[in-house]
Design goal:
Largest sheet: 4 strands, antiparallel
Distance between the termini: 19 Å
Structural class: mainly beta
């Protein structure tokens, strides 16, 4: 759906995706502004395993200065 690059930030895997094409299944269709995103859309996903190893916490931050004034999580 775009170009994804991952890197580790301590114990957290960070995946940054940009260059997301319109009409590709996935995040853009899930988002409230799915029908209207610009070529500036950037999604940052963060995956962190709990200390006991039984839970995976995932957060996503969505930024699209071409459509939204502020980012949201």
């Amino acid at each position: 759906m775009g170009q994804s690059v991952g890197h580790w930030d301590g114990e957290t895997l960070v995946v940054e995706t940009s260059g997301i094409a319109a009409g590709i299944a996935g995040w853009p269709q899930v988002l409230a502004f799915s029908a209207q995103h610009s070529d500036q859309l950037r999604i940052v996903e963060r995956y962190t395993r709990s200390t006991d190893g039984t839970t995976l916490m995932m957060t996503a931050t969505v930024e699209d200065p071409g459509v939204c004034e502020s980012r949201w999580c």
